[in-house]
Design brief:
The protein is of the alpha/beta class and 358 residues long. It folds into two domains: 153 residues, FAD/NAD(P)-binding domain, CATH 3.50.50; 146 residues, D-Amino Acid Oxidase, Chain A, domain 2, CATH 3.30.9. The chain contains nine helices and 18 strands. Strands 3, 4, 8, 9, 10, 11, 17 and 18 form an eight-stranded mixed sheet that branches. The chain has an eight-stranded mixed sheet with strand order 5-7-6-13-14-15-12-16. β13 and β14 form a beta hairpin. The protein is globular and about 60 Å long. The termini are far apart. It binds flavin-adenine dinucleotide. Flavin-adenine dinucleotide binds next to α1, β4, β12, β16 and α7. The site of flavin-adenine dinucleotide (FAD) has 39 residues, from α1, β4, β12, β16 and α7.
């Protein structure tokens, strides 16, 4: 069957072509799509998840998850069949300062975690690269091959549901685009702690060293794309500097890395996230936090909300999801801690500005 062939609207079958009809089509099987699908399936809805990749698939991501994510997913860590690491603090490097910020956080590998989440959802999954979406009565037809009443766009930055229905109403703010560069690889790390470097070498963002359980490591950097561009810098230059930092600290030496880049949008205006029966969630709605660029938690929370809205007719709102990684902002706490006791005085509004400008 040619999945891109057009069918006349309303047709359940046309010649040799049949249209698969379900209650909800979810485009994208990452955390937002899986979380949404799981809730819908639990309630008895017929759900089809379309993802262009075969799972398990690689997703560029440091794989840091918060205790809120574990709670939101009702995730039994003991029963999780893959790598799961817990940190009791983060080693923060900020210019000349280095200190441990007490905070319980976790790391997973997205390659394993996303596949586990998607299977656990119980939804039917099809490998399909979604290109063309059309309104069809009060529902939607996807590539002439799939039809549903409700449609959830959870396909990340370049989500076709966002592009088709939401781009004009909810344009991406370029100043909120984060550029990243990272690599995850098997490595016998010597330091089991998670390290973060803020503003290293003037990077408008931060760099990370995140060990995973059983000898995997993720190293990467992320910064605000517009700021880098305005300075005529590129992320690769910062990456080379970061490799030097890792080597000098004895964290990584003589390892050939093959980093890759990806960009996504941090939390901006999220007023228009539902249009009729079409919803956007996760990176498709641009929900990652503005301080630590954390997107997994908001993806899951928005996926759950989309499902609740479809099932219970609840209003679908995302503007009250936290725009920072904790109520008071981890970065804000970190800066306060870094500057408390030092001779430098950091005015209150400067703290907020530093956090907001990350
Ligand atoms: C380098 C990097 C590091 C990061 N580190 C962290 C971190 O440590 N912690 C954290 O919380 N967040 C982190 N993030 C952010 C986080 O990865 C995302 O916010 C999160 O993955 C968003 O989930 P999602 O389900 O919305 O989208 P995704 O996880 O991107 O899933 C989208 C899915 O849609 C599929 N898809 C795309 N286009 C189509 C199409 N046309 N048709 C069908 N399927 C399609 C993709 O194959 C993919 O499986 C990081 C991001 C990057 C780039």
């Amino acid at each position: 069957m040619d999945p891109h062939a057009r069918l006349p609207a309303g047709g359940g079958a046309c010649g040799r072509l049949t249209v698969e009809t379900v209650d909800v089509i979810v485009v994208g099987g990452g955390p937002a799509g899986s979380a949404c699908a799981a809730r819908l399936v639990q309630a008895g809805a017929s759900v089809l998840v379309l993802d262009r990749e075969e799972f398990p698939r690689t997703k560029l991501c440091a794989g840091w998850i918060t205790p809120e994510v574990v709670a939101d997913l009702n995730f039994d860590v003991e029963a999780y069949p893959h790598r799961f690491n817990t940190f009791n603090g983060i080693v923060v490097h900020l210019k000349w300062l280095k200190f441990k910020l007490p905070s319980v956080q976790h790391s997973i590998r997205r390659f394993e975690f996303d596949n586990w989440l998607l299977r656990r959802s119980g939804a039917r999954v099809r490998r399909h690269n979604v290109r063309n979406i059309e309104r069809d009565g009060d529902g939607f037809t996807v590539d002439g091959a799939f039809r549903s009443k409700h449609l959830v766009g959870a396909a990340g930055t370049r989500c076709p549901v966002y592009r088709t229905f939401f781009r004009d109403a909810n344009p991406r703010a370029r100043e909120l685009q984060a550029a990243t560069y990272e690599h995850e690889f098997p490595h016998r790390w010597r330091d089991e702690r998670c390290h973060l470097w803020f503003f290293e070498n003037g990077l408008p963002g931060y760099a990370w060293y995140v060990p995973k359980a059983d000898g995997y490591l993720n190293c990467g950097i992320g910064g605000m794309a517009e700021k880098l561009k305005a300075r005529g810098e590129d992320i690769k230059r910062h990456w080379r500097h970061f490799l030097g930092v890792l080597a000098r600290r004895g964290l990584l030496r003589d390892v050939e890395l093959a980093p890759k880049g990806y960009s996504y949008y941090l939390r901006g205006g999220v007023e228009v996230v539902r249009l009729g029966n079409a919803f956007i969630a996760g990176d498709s709605a641009g929900l990652a936090t503005r301080d630590l660029c954390e997107g997994i938690g908001p993806a899951i929370a928005s996926g759950h909300r989309a499902a609740a809205s479809i099932l219970e007719g609840r209003e679908y709102r995302l503007d009250d999801l936290a725009a920072y990684s904790s109520d008071i902002g981890l970065v804000q706490r970190m800066l306060e801690r870094a500057f408390a006791g030092s001779r430098l005085h950091l005015p209150e509004n400067r703290v907020a500005r530093e956090a907001a400008s990350l």
